[in-house]
Amino acid sequence: MDSVVSDVSRVTGLVEPEPEEELKAWQTDRTRAPIATKIVVAGGFGVGKTTLVTAVSEIAPLQTEALMTEASEETDDLTATPGKTTTTVAMDFGRITLDDDLVLYLFGTPGQQRFWFMWDDLVRGAIGAVVMADTRRLSDCFPALDYFESCGLPYMVAVNHFDGSERFQPEDVREALTIPPHIPVMIMDARRRISAIETLLALVGHALAVSPE
Ligand SMILES: Nc1nc2c(ncn2[C@@H]2O[C@H](COP(=O)(O)OP(=O)(O)OP(=O)(O)O)[C@@H](O)[C@H]2O)c(=O)[nH]1
Ligand SMILES: [Mg+2]
After folding, report:
1. Which of 1, 10, 52, 61 is deepest in the core (most CB within 10 A)?
2. Ligand 1, atom 8: closest residue by C-alpha
3. Most distant CA pair in the chain: distance in Å?
4. Each residue of 19-71: pLDDT tens digit?
5. At 197, which CATH number?
């Protein structure tokens, strides 16, 4: 109730509003309104989608993690990520501002097959997708690759390198997954902000290059 009263007095001008945070130059420059774009982060179960969105987001990321129980032991293979205790059941959401006037809204998909029906909604309006891959279980990213190939959304492959797994060159992964030459393939670390930002920049560049004017 208190908050309603204070909101009303703010609208009617009875109480001085709190001093606002000082605006940055790019926020007041009306000739350079930020461009907002949507990017999807997809890939197989436990490949590091939530980790990537969390590493780069400048706002507290929205997460829909649910604890995994013994009931999913048969379907969710945790051999590659034994420390994983939760899984995304709807989506991850984060935001990052690049170069002052490009705002990326990141939508992480759920990895488990039983939640794939949500992908059609998640990709609507996106300019492109990052398909994350783990070289220890490359085939897990095939459904995501097929999905973006068939819907025509520009995508790239981000190989999330896990500690202790064998290192591969991007060209090796490209060959293994039969990725066409014009599609970027990068080796990255989803836990490192800089590495994740480089990946997103590569996707934006690729999406701009392949999308009609
Ligand atoms: N060593 C290492 N661990 C990672 C890396 N990325 C993610 N992890 C760990 O791997 C596990 C899986 O990460 P998540 O980000 O939850 O994976 P996800 O793709 O969102 O999983 P789902 O939503 O369940 O499909 C977590 O325990 C992370 O801490 C990485 O680059 N290196
Ligand atoms: Mg997740």
Report:
1. 52
2. 48
3. 67
4. 666 777 766 676 767 789 999 999 999 999 999 999 999 999 999 999 988 88
5. 3.40.50.300
